[in-house]
Amino acid sequence: MKQQSLRIAVAQINPTVGDLQGNRDKMIAYVDRALQDGCDLIAFPELSVTGYPPEDLLLRQQFIYDQEISLRQLAKKNPDIICVTGYVDHIQGKLYNTAVVLHNGEIAAAYHKVHLPNYSVFDEERYFDSGSEPLVITVDGWRIGISICEDIWIAESVVEAEALIGKADILLNISASPYCLGKGAERLSLMQGRARRTSSAVVYVNLIGGQDELVFDGRSLVIAPDGRILQTGAAFREDYLITDWQLMDRYFFRQEKQQLKTIFHNPFPSVKVIDIAKKIEQKTPLQVQHTIQSLQQESEEVYDALLLGLKDYVHKNGFKKIVLGLSGGIDSALVAVLAVDALGKDNVISVAMPSQYSSQASIEDARKIAGNLDIQLMELSIQSVFMQYLETLAETFAGLSSEITEENLQARIRGNLLMALSNKFGWLVLVTGNKSEVSVGYCTLYGDMAGGFSPLKDVFKTMVYQLCEYRNQKAGHDLIPRRVIEKAPSAELKPDQTDQDSLPPYDLLDAILEHYIGKEMGVEEIAALGFDRETAREVVRMVDWAEYKRRQAAPGIKITRRAFGKDRRMPITNHYRAR
């Protein structure tokens, strides 16, 4: 039986920064789908027109004009549906991060983001001016509050004003909220709290996709005013949700709002209310499967984030194939498996580059991994090249002992070979180092750090082990051989070498690194937690010393709350030492 209902579609899409035509066409395709489904309104994520974050593209005037042309083309394509999407508004030389409401081929309303994040990976104050007025649109009696990402994270502000002053029945938030471990649960709790506090439904649409170091995980949400989860979007892939809101829902929302006793200190002089002249027709309820997806386990969500970040970085930058050094160790094994899962086995080339210090077991393990994955394995011995280097340098190095210089030469030969293959065949080189090593400089510039992308850059060694176990469990067999997981980690650059010759055990090292890098704790604070003071001091010293290396490292996927790169920006020339 037909009934009058407001039908809202959420399009959780994966745009590409700067691909104005591609992003426009993707949105048009979803708008067409929403029209076929009888939707009255469709919402896209923050800055869907430009992709997020556009960074210094925003400083180019032509880019600002071009993205507005794309928006106008989107508006005229399907004028019958209300479309809410993100673009950059420009008024008298100022730029605004904007949620724009399109209807009848025109811009019917525009909301300028009030709260501009300027912490962690965000630099929005560099580009945008802040808005100052909440927005509520009315659609045939329904009242919908519009906000953008950070606005809903700030209490006693935009969404409360829209709900409690503007009497919004539904709070629609378009977002580009990047992933880090635990973010999904945090967002869900926040949206449920906002719904309960305001007695309004929350419709939250988030971006998905990889953009340089960032991964956006989607997991859009539809939350009832009492905090119940009505729908959730998929994690790490595009998704499309439809929700019908009945007149009875609206009556209930408003009854609850009248009983609301919350004291709200409204910081805004007014709430803009704009009527959208659209009649909501009676429609047959859709037989929609309202999926509620459980939050993933830690290893699963990290693995999926790495997959999406790797796949999008490779494809969005125009590469088809990757190449990596396959040493027989656990890090390169995990990167190889990730690459096959993300790109397919035919697009992954592995290279074993043994020296006189490589164990027979490592060579066998590299072959076993390549065989398990059914990928090409090249074997290029570096022993003769290494000896030629030593012969060339013999007179210069005469009388000096063999030490780390000779070890690094081997790593740099391997880096040169991988880059030669990259240059010749157009393959992207993947770096296989992990966050534990990068943190303390246990890596070689222009050697094992050479490459275009570093999937494990923000993954601690202890997490590497967890991810390997997860992937083997998912495969149902030892895709990554058990010997690779269980043997002592080693760079194999000198006889009988292990990582623990130079570093504390990884579980201890990673714990100290998390406190120093992730929580900004000093040596004494770390020692007060029960860690050995001298060990903590030495780890901190190594982290500080290695800053110049990290500044030259390949980009990698942000997984933790404090990743190297945009998250943590320390000066290279720096005489301050943490105490």
List keywords for this structure.
579 residues, alpha/beta, Nitrilase/N-carbamoyl-D-aminoacid amidohydrolase, Rossmann fold, 2 domains, seven-stranded mixed beta sheet, 20 strands, 38% helix
What's this, in brief?
This protein has 579 residues and is an alpha/beta fold. Helices cover 38% and strands 19% of the residues.
Written description of the protein model:
The protein has two domains: 281 residues, Carbon-nitrogen hydrolase (Nitrilase/N-carbamoyl-D-aminoacid amidohydrolase); 202 residues, Rossmann fold. It starts with a strand and ends in a 28-residue tail after the last helix. The radius of gyration is 27 Å and the shape is elongated. The chain contains 19 helices and 20 strands. The mean pLDDT is 91. A hairpin with a 2-residue loop joins strand 6 and strand 7. Strands 1, 2, 3, 4, 5, 14 and 16 form a seven-stranded mixed β-sheet that branches. A seven-stranded mixed β-sheet has the order 13-12-9-8-7-6-15. It is α/β, with parallel strands linked by helices and 579 residues long.
Annotate the secondary structure layout:
Elements: E1 3-12, H1 20-36, E2 41-43, H2 61-77, E3 82-91, E4 94-103, E5 106-112, H3 124-127, E6 135-139, E7 142-148, H4 150-153, H5 158-165, E8 170-175, H6 183-198, E9 201-206, E10 208-211, E11 214-217, E12 221-223, E13 229-232, E14 239-246, H7 247-258, E15 272-276, E16 282-283, H8 298-316, E17 322-325, H9 330-343, E18 348-352, H10 360-373, E19 376-379, H11 383-393, H12 404-425, E20 428-429, H13 435-440, H14 461-475, H15 482-486, H16 506-518, H17 523-528, H18 533-545, H19 547-551
Parallel strand pairs: 1-2, 2-3, 6-15, 7-8, 8-9, 17-18, 17-20, 18-19
Antiparallel strand pairs: 1-14, 1-16, 3-4, 4-5, 6-7, 9-12, 10-11, 12-13
Helix pairs in contact: 1-2, 8-9, 8-14, 9-10, 9-14, 11-12, 16-18
